[in-house]
From TrEMBL:
Coiled coil: none annotated. InterPro entries: ABC_transp_permease (IPR001851). Its main location: membrane. This is ABC transporter permease. PANTHER family: ABC TRANSPORTER PERMEASE PROTEIN YPHD-RELATED (PTHR32196:SF21), ABC TRANSPORTER PERMEASE PROTEIN YPHD-RELATED-RELATED (PTHR32196). It is found in: Cell membrane. The lineage of its organism: Bacteria, Bacillati, Actinomycetota, Actinomycetes, Glycomycetales. The keyword Cell membrane applies. One of its GO terms (cellular component) is plasma membrane. Keywords: Cell inner membrane, Cell membrane, Membrane, Transmembrane, Transmembrane helix, Transport.
Length: 347
């Protein structure tokens, strides 16, 4: 007897009996997929806390405060990289923006222009660069990767011209340094800034029309255009937002570093992009998201910190960040395709 000869009421009863079990299995699978990176982060942290080579230093309050505080700047820059990435655009200038912002902020502080004005100068630099990126990409129709790579190269020249390769560390106000290195209730002050920025970006991306437009554009530019979304405006605002967040990171870097190193921006781009891409493998698999970005930042940070304390050579961090970017891109593509295939079936 095949299913076609079984009364409809019987088959419906069988399906309804199987459905809850299938939903539970799917739900468990999605939960594991969403929080696997979180679990791996916890497992690695526990490993370094008990491993004899690192147990004496990794779990110390001082090390944890340094680890968390050091990630605030790169975390904010990664959130900047995340925004255009949602629309399938790459901003390769974010590290350079943070670097040039740090230099001009530190220079203004060193010249005695005051904390507020110096910060505004830095953020203004980021805004100006973001507007240039947005106009070239959306009006001149130059590819985003080429545009931001070119801008990053120009900014490298600007930094070298302004500093002659010498770090700016003189006459930085103590209040700035105290904030960058200080704690509030045991939590690094810069980490609290990261939390505030992450919540703001999360709200904008998940609870405003512009955020929904950005995700729609990333899913299908042609469909987004058909429903009336102004793709050029959405993309332009994304690049401006990315530069603004990178500029905020640059200003905070001055506080953290008590000045500005002309080479600092170079080291920001790859880790920020790696974290943004890895976000698609955590919290909301197949979808670039704020929570996943923060998890990825601390996953890489804990791994690098633990290996450093174990005496592993510094160049290993370059291997890890590069591998993370490749894995992140691969996972994002794979999970995105699977999510697309499952969507018509309610997945």
């Amino acid at each position: 007897m095949n299913e076609s000869t079984i009364p409809a009421a019987v088959t419906d009863e069988r399906r309804s009996a199987v459905a809850p079990e299938r939903r539970r299995t799917i739900g468990a699978g999605r939960f594991i997929e969403a929080y696997a990176l979180v679990g791996l982060l916890v497992a690695i942290a526990i490993f370094f806390a008990v491993w004899p080579k690192t147990s004496g230093s990794f779990a110390s309050v001082a090390n944890l405060q340094i680890l968390v505080g050091n990630q605030a700047v790169i975390g904010i820059i990664a959130l900047g990289a995340l925004i255009p990435l949602i629309a399938n655009e790459w901003d390769l200038s974010i590290g350079a923006v943070a670097g040039v912002t740090a230099v001009f902020t530190a220079a203004a502080l060193s010249a005695g222009h005051g904390i507020a004005l110096s910060a505004l100068i830095g953020v203004g630099c980021g805004l100006a660069i973001g507007l240039v990126n947005a106009l070239v990409i959306t009006r001149a129709r130059v590819n985003g990767v080429i545009t931001t790579l070119g801008v990053a190269t120009i900014l490298e020249g600007v930094v070298n011209q302004r500093t002659n390769g010498v770090a700016i560390t003189t006459d930085i106000p103590d209040a700035v340094v105290d904030f960058g290195l200080g704690t509030t209730a045991g939590v690094p002050s810069l980490a609290l800034v990261l939390i505030a920025v992450a919540l703001l970006v999360y709200y904008v991306l998940d609870h405003t029309p512009w955020g929904r437009y950005l995700y729609a554009l990333g899913s299908s530019p042609s469909a987004a255009r058909l429903v009336g979304i102004r793709n050029g405006v959405v993309v332009g605002v994304a690049f401006v937002s990315a530069s603004l967040l990178a500029a905020v990171g640059g200003v905070l870097q001055v506080a953290r570093q008590a000045g500005a190193d002309p080479r600092v921006g170079v080291g920001f781009t790859l880790p920020a992009l790696a974290a943004a891409f890895l976000s698609a493998a955590s919290v909301k698999p197949g979808k670039y998201n704020v929570g996943g970005t923060i998890v990825a930042i601390f996953f890489l940070a804990v791994l690098n910190n633990g290996l450093s304390l174990a005496g592993v050579p510094a160049y290993v961090s370059s291997y890890l960040n590069g591998a993370a970017l490749v894995v992140g891109v691969g996972l994002a593509v794979w999970l995105g395709r699977r999510r697309t295939r499952q969507a018509p079936h309610g997945g």
